[in-house]
Design goal:
Blueprint: E1 10-13, H1 24-29, E2 39-43, E3 46-49, E4 52-55, E5 60-64, E6 70-74, H2 78-83, E7 97-100, E8 105-114, H3 116-119, E9 124-127, E10 135-138, E11 147-149, E12 156-164, E13 171-173, E14 180-184, E15 187-190, E16 200-204, E17 207-210, E18 217-218, E19 229-232, E20 235-238, E21 245-247, E22 253-256, E23 259-260, E24 270-271, E25 285-288, E26 291-292, H4 318-321, H5 363-371, E27 381-384, E28 387-390, H6 399-407, H7 422-435, H8 438-454, E29 475-476, H9 481-494, H10 507-524, E30 527-528, E31 531-532, E32 538-539, E33 557-558, H11 561-570, H12 577-593, E34 595-604, E35 612-626, E36 628-629, E37 638-639, E38 645-646, H13 654-659, E39 663-664, H14 668-682
Parallel strand pairs: 1-2, 2-5, 3-6, 4-7, 5-8, 6-8, 7-11, 8-12, 11-13, 12-14, 12-15, 14-16, 15-17, 16-19, 17-20, 18-21, 19-22, 20-23, 21-24, 22-25, 23-26
Antiparallel strand pairs: 9-10, 27-28, 29-32, 30-31, 33-36, 34-35, 35-39, 37-38
Helix pairs in contact: 7-8, 9-10, 11-12, 11-14
């Protein structure tokens, strides 16, 4: 419940808890990155005090219950964000609603506010490591963005939305090469250049409220001579003597059927000399049937005949605006190819998802994003025509299989078994480090959030989440599943290697999850007559008692999993007394239960169903440990698919003997090398202890 389903195509956000999610960001995080048709995040009326990020996702509709009733609000000045070490030189994260690499997004019935200017009492001076003076004075009327889109967010539709800020750049859809933006029935309010699209933009039946004398609207069309901003049947009002607009670079403005307040300045849209200005294509500012309350200024005169091709006012529509690149109203397929986005044109350092260079794409990482489930984790295998097939990222992925896998993103099969999820998170971060493709980092971060979400309050991790059927809900040390997760989260917490690239907001939760995991490990160490021993492969998540999993995996002490658990504990810096005692006690148990002068041999045996066999033989100097030990006797046991205990390996069926490793040398290196080194550092005086 509450997890996005590809079948349902909608999740619900409600601040009062009556929906699937309480925050918009949580709902967006639940969605797969890619989809063949739109998914809707329906937002109930309420105030949502959060900064929202849409990164590397596509085909999403953010739909509010009502424009006035759904309020997304955050307060932050652009300069304040850029002075923050978490911010940086580009604008990613500067706005209340941030988007990049996210084509085909629709916003409906929302109010998006950046209230910094409304809240601030005046100028403030802050520390600013990025400024040469190390200080920055922040004005209440400086740049404040409510909506900021980075390159790769194109074909954006916005209907019945309000965007408000007191400063400049309130609505900043910026992709000069491939930006396609459509606004209808919206209200936009702010300071200088508060509506400032780059690329192609169309706004109809919109209201613009200006609080700065320099300019209300702005355009950058320098990426393509055909780029333009069209404003049709729009209303302009604001503080006394506000100017209509300006441009710093090549631009093209069309205003049709617009109405201007009486108090606007007698100043046409002008070239701001502080920018590079129009050098190739000249001044291109056109009006048709625009009027000012109290009388028109001379520059309001119709001049469409001077535009290239002398278009008639009736022909200037939304579909006309984009020059065949997009047909948002008629729904026709594009007839003109969209140029690749160039992040350098907007001070962005991130590549676009749709037009990656060869060195920015990774075929394995791309497949991992396809297989990522809505909940954030990955499956270890998928069923195809009732046959379970292991996920293999080295195999080619056909278009049909890709589409069907994406459509099945809501399947309930995400797991940490067999390296699933931890493998993908690690690889995606490595791929991001190589390619700088933000979709890979975002996929990894969703995977980390999945791991944090699946952890029990007592610190244990189930094998699957949210699937709790059969033994999948048990706390699972089996095959080192839980320890792999804790290893990864510890790397996040310490920001080691590629894990330093993840969102810093994940560092604290990761550290807390590791601490809870260690506490669970200490509490589940099995007691024999009050004496600590080792660990079982599975535990009941409520009672913390040993539990059975598959037929041949009875509740028993494990020579295999316990070795890796001890290694994990020995990697803890400055361990507590409880952790030290757990390590020393487990090592003592390993010494107690080892099988000296024994070895495991694999032999060919044509008489067996598998054509081979495994046998235990005497071998002087060799040492073995059993995979399973009886809980209260420490006697090695061998269990086949009949779930019956045997005390000799030869007594169980050949299929299990040949297919499952019942004995090995797992703790050998631990006892001979790792533990003595650890003991010198931490445990010279620590002795095995019973639990309190």
């Amino acid at each position: 419940m509450g997890i996005f389903s590809a079948r349902a195509q909608q999740v619900i956000v409600a601040a009062d808890g009556s929906g699937n999610f309480r925050t918009i960001q949580a709902a967006l995080n639940s969605l797969p990155n890619q989809a063949t048709k739109p998914r809707t995040v329906y937002i109930k009326n309420g105030t949502y005090r959060e900064k929202v990020f849409l990164d590397g996702k596509q085909q999403i509709v953010l739909k509010g219950q009502s424009e006035k009733g759904v309020i997304l609000t955050y307060a932050q000045a652009r300069d304040e964000w850029r002075c923050n070490p978490e911010g940086g030189a580009d604008d990613w994260g500067v706005a209340t609603l941030n988007m990049r690499n996210s084509p085909d997004i629709t916003l409906e019935n929302l109010t998006v506010l950046n209230t910094y200017g409304f809240d601030a009492k005046g100028e403030v001076t802050i520390d600013c490591p990025t400024d040469p003076t190390k200080k920055k004075t922040i004005s209440k009327t400086g740049h404040q963005m409510a909506l900021r889109t980075m390159p790769g967010t194109t074909r954006l539709i916005v209907k019945h939305c309000t965007f408000r800020a007191l400063g400049g750049d309130t609505v900043s859809p910026w992709d000069v090469d491939a930006g396609l933006y459509y606004f209808q029935d919206c209200t936009m309010e702010g300071g200088v250049d508060f509506y400032c699209p780059r690329g192609w933009a169309y706004a109809e039946n919109c209201r613009f409220i200006c609080h700065n004398p320099n300019a209300a609207i702005w355009h950058d069309g320098s990426g393509n001579k055909d780029s333009k901003t069209v404003l049709k049947n729009c209303v302009f009002e604001g503080d006394d003597n506000f100017k209509l607009g300006r441009f710093h670079r090549e631009a093209q403005f069309y205003l049709l059927d617009c109405k201007f307040a009486k108090n606007m300045a007698d100043a046409d849209i002008y070239w701001a000399t502080s920018g590079p200005g129009a050098k190739q294509w000249g001044r291109r500012v056109y009006y048709a049937n625009c009027h000012r309350e109290g009388g028109d200024y001379a520059w309001h005169q119709d001049n469409l005949r001077t535009a290239e091709g002398a278009p008639k006012a009736s022909s200037i529509t939304a579909d006309w605006t984009y020059g065949g690149r997009w047909y948002p109203v008629s729904g026709k397929k594009a007839t003109v190819a969209l140029a690749p986005s160039n992040p350098a044109n907007t001070n962005s350092v991130m590549p676009t998802a749709a037009n990656l260079r060869a060195d920015q794409a990774d075929s394995v990482a791309e497949k991992m994003l396809v297989y990522q489930r809505s909940v954030g984790g990955w499956p270890k295998a998928v069923k195809i025509a009732s046959v379970e097939e292991k996920v293999d990222y080295t195999k080619p992925l056909s278009a049909a299989k890709r589409a069907s896998t994406l459509a099945d993103a809501g399947r309930n099969d995400a797991t940490i078994d067999n390296n699933a999820t931890t493998r993908e998170i690690t690889y995606l971060l490595q791929a991001f480090k190589r390619t700088n493709n933000p979709a890979y980092r975002q996929g990894a971060e969703r995977g980390i959030q999945y791991l944090l979400k699946m952890q029990y309050p007592n610190g244990g991790f189930p094998q699957y989440y949210p699937d709790a059927s059969s033994y999948r809900h048990l706390i699972t040390y089996n095959d080192n599943a839980m320890i792999r997760v804790l290893d990864l989260l510890r790397s996040v917490a310490k920001q080691q290697g590629e894990f330093a690239l993840v969102n810093p907001d994940l560092v604290g939760p990761a550290k807390q999850a590791v601490d809870r995991g260690v506490d669970c490990i200490v509490k589940t160490q099995y007691l024999q007559k009050g004496k600590r021993t080792a660990w079982c492969a599975q535990y009941d998540e409520k009672t913390l008692l040993p539990a059975k999993a598959r037929a041949f995996e009875l509740a028993s002490l494990s020579g295999f999993e316990s070795a890796r658990i001890v290694e994990f504990l020995m990697e803890i810096e400055d361990p507590s007394l409880e952790v030290k005692q757990a390590i020393v006690s487990a090592v003592a148990w390993f010494e107690q239960v080892k099988m000296p002068n024994m070895a495991m041999k694999e032999i060919k045996d044509p008489a067996q169903p598998t054509g081979r066999d495994r046998v235990l033989v005497s071998e002087p100097g060799a040492t073995l440990w059993a995979r399973f030990y009886e809980l209260d006797t420490n006697r090695p046991i061998y269990v086949g698919r009949d779930s019956k205990v045997h005390y000799a390996l030869a007594e169980i069926e050949n299929e299990r003997r040949a297919g499952y490793l019942y004995a090995g040398t797992w703790p050998a290196k631990l006892l001979t090398k790792t533990y003595p080194q650890w003991q010198q550092k931490y445990a010279a005086t620590t002795t095995p202890q019973a639990s309190k």
